[in-house]
TrEMBL record:
<keyword id="KW-0808">Transferase</keyword>
<dbReference type="InterPro" id="IPR001296">
    <property type="entry name" value="Glyco_trans_1"/>
</dbReference>
<dbReference type="Pfam" id="PF00534">
    <property type="entry name" value="Glycos_transf_1"/>
</dbReference>
<feature type="domain" description="Glycosyl transferase family 1">
    <location>
        <begin position="130"/>
        <end position="290"/>
    </location>
</feature>
<protein>
    <submittedName>
        <fullName>Glycosyltransferase</fullName>
    </submittedName>
</protein>
<dbReference type="GO" id="GO:0009103">
    <property type="term" value="P:lipopolysaccharide biosynthetic process"/>
</dbReference>
<dbReference type="GO" id="GO:0016757">
    <property type="term" value="F:glycosyltransferase activity"/>
</dbReference>
Amino acid sequence: QIVRRGGSYTVYIWAFLYYIVRFRGNFDIIVDSENGIPFFTPIYARIPVFLLIHHVHQDNEIFKGRLIFPFTYLARFLEAKIMPLVYRNSTVVTVSNSTRKQIIKLGLAKSGNIEIVNPGVVISPILKTRKTKYPSFLYLGRLKPYKNIDVAIRAFALVVKSYPNTELFVVGEGEMMNSLIRLATHLRIQDKVTFYGKVTEHEKTLLLSQSWAAVQPSQLEGWGITVIEANASGTPVIASNVPGLRDSIVDDQTGILVELRDVDGFATAMITLISKNQFRRSLSESAYAWSQNFTWETSANKFLNIIESEIEKRYQYKTSGRFMFEKNNI
């Protein structure tokens, strides 16, 4: 059952009301997803809570892009000061080792209370689709300011000077769409950059499979699901060397890591993959093999094991075979 109520600010109130009126007493555990601001469920729920953190927000500008004043500063205060206190007895689950280190560094949780579960992707047989005859690169994701898609476009403009037949596909939606289109026009590469907007899953897989490489210049990611999606299509990724992306990419094996907002660095990496065919093919093969480690079944089983282990410690009982919850409602 999926319940959708409230907006960016009122969803927390609705979650509290729904739990008190409808859910209390019917479930054994809560997975509390922290997307900048958690739901603070330990305050009103008397069952085990697992706090899921994709990435932290204290040392970046994401809050400023999502919230209006004064909620930007309130959100920072809640995450930095109140969240560690409220969730001090909860297990924290995060998606990468980089995010785990940030959580510890900022004092958001103790190291012994943090577990890592990498997100999965849907692994399907690689499409029998040839790469484009001409060099092609793809950005896949939301068109948000912190994603730094302008870096990819500026780097691509440098590549086109040496390889004029190269193309860039931008796949995704967001408030940066119009400004990115204007940037491509300003750089006189509008005929080389295709903005697809939202696409179907089949179209996404087809574009990933056809592209020579994907680019991900984001300033941070919790992990980098789009990286593994590209890898699962046999496509290596050029990305910023930042938390999350440096976890999902094995540098010079499944992709290339470049310093944050280094336009020349991204352009050099693109040119390297165009000019060195054997290196590109090697990255492609390794990227596909790497992606096979990250299925949703693997992620779900690891998360369930963490839940079962914590419940066993709390209630100190086991059953023969697989651990069973009292109510089997997760």
